Amino acid sequence: MARGDLTRAQWAVLEPLLPPEQRVGRPSRDRRQVVNAIRWRVRTGAPWRDLPERYGPWETAYGLFRTWQRDGVWASVRARLPAGAADVITWDVTTGSTVVPVDTSDGRTATGTD
């Protein structure tokens, strides 16, 4: 687990709020790893292509981020976070319909448009 990745306790709060996995075709990458990849990208503001190898292919993380952004998953997760879970992960709504996860360690956001 890298610095900034979700702990077991944080993942236990976040995982039930995510949509169910679609188990069709090839086995999917570990969701916690992909969410950690998205959080790394949001936290650093780096281009998707600079995602560290430990998170897997950047296309996987970007694809899930965009799909969930379009489907309103980030907004749904934000609305359903239990009271007091702000120390786990916070969410920020930017201009327009873009919903972007925010890392609580530094509060920076990213537009997700790289």
What is this entry, summarized?
The chain has helices at 8-14, 31-44, 58-71, 73-80, and strands at residues 90-93, 99-102.
Structure description:
With 114 residues, this protein is mostly helical. The chain has 4 helices and 2 strands. Strand 1 and strand 2 form a beta hairpin. Helix 2 crosses helix 3. The radius of gyration is 13 Å and the shape is globular. The C terminus is likely disordered.
Q: In which range does the helix fraction lie?
A: 25-40%
Query: How does the major sheet shape up?
Result: 2 strands, antiparallel
Q: Spans with pLDDT under 50 lasting ≥5 residues?
A: 90-100, 102-114
- Round the mean pLDDT to the nearest integer and report it: 76
Radius of gyration computed on alpha carbons: 13 Å
Distance from N terminus to C terminus (CA atoms, Å) equals: 25 Å
What general form does the structure show? Answer: globular
Based on secondary structure, the structural category is mainly alpha
Number of strands: 2
Widest sheet: strand order? 1-2
Percentage beta strand? 5-15%
Order of helices and strands: HHHHEE
Number of helices: 4
Keywords:
114 residues; 4 helices; 2 strands
Write the layout of secondary structure elements.
Blueprint: H1 8-14, H2 31-44, H3 58-71, H4 73-80, E1 90-93, E2 99-102
